[in-house]
Amino acid sequence: MIIFPAIDILDGQCVRLIQGDYNREKVYSNSPVDMAKQWEKKGAEYIHIVDLNGAKTGVSINKEIIKEIANTVSIPVQVGGGIRSVDTIKYYLENGVSRVIIGTAAINNQQFLQEAIETFGEKIAVSIDARNGYVATDGWTDTSDVSALDLIKKLEEDGVKTIVYTDIAKDGMLQGPNLTEQQTINKATKMDVIASGGVTTKEDVENLRQLNMYGTIIGKALYDGKLEFESLMEE
Predict the structure, then answer these.
(1) In whole angstroms, how far apart are CA 232 and each of 155, 197, 200, 216, 226?
(2) Is the Cα dihedral 57, 61, 66, 67 positive or negative?
(3) What is the pLDDT along the chain (235 residues), one digit of tens a residue?
(4) Domain around 205
């Protein structure tokens, strides 16, 4: 199982939001690039980046920083947050990013998603952020009437190979992941599932490993010192 340290970028800074609330942010570093280098040094094999400005508005003001990260570290980088055009995907993939994650647009713009999959194949992943089993969009500010399980079935039919599944209720709360939900999702698809939200302890990581998840994203627990990345990599 791949452990992805998360770098969430808002206004050029490395931050964490609690349950996706833009009014509840904590700044951890003024340099996301230095943070990426730190994770690589600690043994990370893949970095997960979220452009929070892009996620909220659909317009990225952090592209240059993300490009610099991708070209500074030697490990792969995946990026999500406000990816709503083929040009944005091209920009990232041509500037060192290994995988681009589509979120809101996977719900709101089927034609765009299909074009992205047909053009870029396995370099496209889809992020499914769920609240009580239903998909949330626009930086988690809206909840749709689309069931997460229904969306997953459709994405697999469309040719998506990787999804990131986040239980919003658990995100940033340091209360452990929703293992039941993650297991249900993982069993419902042949796609690679990256679990996100609430991972706080070594036991959480081991439980997800036991569920045969492809990967897990860890953010707040690493930044707050609840988990030591090196010790996770040793295991």
Answers:
(1) 31, 17, 12, 12, 12
(2) positive
(3) 999 999 999 999 999 887 678 888 899 999 999 999 999 999 999 999 999 999 888 888 999 999 999 999 999 999 999 899 999 999 999 999 999 999 878 888 989 999 999 999 999 999 998 888 888 765 555 666 888 999 999 999 999 999 999 887 655 555 688 898 899 999 999 999 999 988 999 999 999 999 999 999 999 899 999 999 999 988 7
(4) 2-234
Residue 5: CB partners within 8 Å, gap ≥ 6? 39, 42, 44, 47, 48, 217, 218, 219, 222, 229
Beta strands in the chain (DSSP E): 2-10, 13-18, 21-29, 47-51, 77-80, 99-102, 124-131, 134-137, 142-147, 162-167, 192-196, 215-218
What's the token pair of residue 73? Answer: 């570290």
Residues 64 and 67: their CA atoms lie apart, in Å, by 5
Task: Count CA within 13 A, CB hemisphere, residue 191.
Answer: 30
The per-residue pLDDT for 1 is 96
Which residues have a catalytic role annotated?
8, 129
CA distance 101 to 82: 9
Residue 42 phi/psi, 5-degree rounding, is: -80, 0
Number of domains in the chain: 1
**Residue 69 burial by Cβ neighbours in a 10 Å radius (0-12, 13-18, 19+):** buried
The tokens of 100 are what? Answer: 């681009």
CATH of the domain at 53: 3.20.20.70
